[in-house]
Design brief:
- This protein has helices at about 45-50, 60-65, 70-75, 80, 95-100, 125-135, 155-175, 195-205, 220-235, 250-260, 270-275, 305-310, 315-320, 325-350, 355-370; strands spanning about 5-10, 15-20, 25-30, 30-35, 55-60, 90, 105, 110-115, 120-125, 140-145, 180-185, 210-215, 240-245, 265, 275-280, 285.
- By secondary structure, the chain is an alpha/beta fold.
Amino acid sequence: MSEKYTVSVTDGAARAGILRTAHGDVPTPAFMPVGTKATVKTVDPEELRALGTPILLGNTYHLHFRPGEDVIAELGGLHRFMGWAGPILTDSGGFQVFSLRNTIAAVDDDGVTFRSVYDGAAARFTPESVAAIQAALSSDIAMCLDICPPADVPASELAEAVRRTTLWAARQRTAPRAEGQLLFGIAQGASDPELRRRSIAEISELGFDGHALGGLAIGEDRRLMFETTAWAAALFPADRPRYFMGIGDPEGVLEVIERGVDMFDCVLPTRTARTGSALTWEGRLNLRNARFARDPRPLDESCPCPACTRFSRAYLRHLINQEELLGLRLLSLHNLRFLLDLTANARAAIEEGRLAAYKAEALGRLASAA
């Protein structure tokens, strides 16, 4: 039984629980805003707290190259460096390396050699070096280095990714960590039943503090992604948190929660904001559209975020079309609040045994507005 994670109630496959970290408890299901370079773009840490953010994600790859984990460690660790007192999860950097396949020079059982996306300089990640970077960052949760191949790779390449992911996870499992730092293993295998089951079994056997479904939401058929999530999530140990890497659209969030996922992250809310679009119960609103030019209404009458309580759609459209930074900030705050509230409401629905009804109502509202 895990001392770090407790499932308090279930509703079908869905779970509500508490993850205990060195910087506080995280109620799950939990959406993690992405702070790639030690910042959630345009948003102050105190604003994130006011929005109800339970935990942030930081990017090991980018922080390693700029400004460097040695600088961050010298300045007191990632929490102090970025002015965020709550929990932080750091990814391993593996996704960045393997998604930038044209920068990879060599992959072997020891690690991966690649060129930095910043200056083209040669670099190498191994399970031990990635563990050392994350230890220096002093995040609350560190992720294991894994291989995430693109969708539709040959079965032989997928099998090799599974084999090396397990090999690397076993080595990182014994590498030094920061005090109190939790370590999550990542299962690969795409939607291949045999390889995914094998990867989950091997990673689960290593005894991590939590487990992640990697290698999904990378271009495969969406229905197949959800089907895979349903049976794969159930294979992980029930007393450990389950993390779906890289999903953040409202439908996707509700679908994976219903299938037993406890944590998820995505750049979607802030990236969508930077394109001038807002996530609302009317669907995704492109505020560059002329129909909002004289619209006096807030984005959402019921939303308590600064964009909705203080400004009109017309004003937000003006800011976006004039490329004013305030517009990007306000839409980022709103989109984050929308997903954080959606997740918190899903947790409340699980606790009340009515997640299916909540999901149907939420998706019905979004569909009717489309």
